[in-house]
Amino acid sequence: MAERYCTKQDLKKKARLWLKAALKYAPSYRKIAFRIQNSALLVIDIQKFFTLPESPAYIPATEPIISNIINLIGRFRKERRPVLFSYYAVGKNEAPTMRLFWSKVLSPSDPLAALDIRLPVLKEDIVIRKPSYSLFSKRAVKAVLKQTVTEQVVICGVMTDLCCDTAAREAFLNGYTPFVVADATASTTEDLHLSALKTAAHGYALIVLTESLL
C-alpha cells in the first residue's frame, strides 16, 4: 500500500529535511553549478497509472509534486531548453523481466498509460514510451540531448527509486550530469524515496530543490 507521506502543506518542510539527509552522503568537494543553458528536463512517468486515485498503482505523493513539475516545465520552456516526457507501458513481446517481477504490467492501449492531463504537453514535445525502467535505452533521448548540446539533465517524476534513479544512473554513465529534484520526485513510501536520494547523492547525481532551479 502506497503511503501519503507528504502533502501540499508540508512538502516544502519535508523536502528540506530530505535534502539535508541526502547531502550527508555527498562529498563536500563536489560543487557543480546548475546551468540551464546546457540542460534538459526529463519528466518521468507522470501518467494516470500513478496519478489517479482509482488506479491500482496510485502514488499519493504525486499530488503535491505536480505543481513543482509544471513550474520546472515552464522554466525550461522560457529558456527554450528541451523537455522530454516519458511514460511506462509494456508491449506484447517486451520486457519479460517486468512481467516476472510484477503481478501486472501496463499495456500501451490501457487508458491509464496516458500522461496526466495536468501536464502542459505541446504537440512538438517529445513523448517516449518505455517498457521498463530505462529511458536512455531509447535512441531518441540521446539524439535530442546531443542535438541540443545538453550537458546536464534535470530529473523529476516517479518513481524516485526505480525509473528516476535509473535515468540518473544512465545519464551519469552517458556523460551527463544529473540533478534529481527532491520535491518533484516521488515513490510509494518515504523510505524508498529518501533512500534513493541518499544513494544518488553518494555517487551519481546532485540532489536539489525546485526553488533552486527556477
Description:
It contains 7 helices and 6 strands, in the order αβααβαβαβαβαβ. It is of the alpha/beta class. The protein has one domain (11-23, 36-212): 3-Layer(aba) Sandwich (Rossmann fold). It has a 6-stranded parallel β-sheet with strand order 3-2-1-4-5-6. β4 (152-158), α6 and β5 (177-186) form a beta-alpha-beta unit. α1 (11-23) packs across α7. The longest helix is centred in the N-terminal third of the chain and has 17 residues, at 62-78. It is globular, with a radius of gyration of 16 Å.
Global outline: globular
Largest sheet: 6 strands, parallel
Tally of extended strands? 6
Helix content: 25-40%
Distance between the termini: 33 Å
Question: What CATH architecture label applies?
Answer: 3-Layer(aba) Sandwich
* Order of strands across the main sheet: 3-2-1-4-5-6
Strand content: 15-25%
Order of helices and strands: HEHHEHEHEHEHE
Tally of DSSP helical segments: 7
CATH-assigned homologous superfamily: Isochorismatase-like
Residue windows where pLDDT falls under 50 for at least 5 positions: none
Q: Class, according to the CATH hierarchy?
A: Alpha Beta
User: What is the mean pLDDT?
Assistant: 97
What distinguishing features does this structure have?
214 residues; 7 helices; alpha/beta; 6-stranded parallel beta sheet
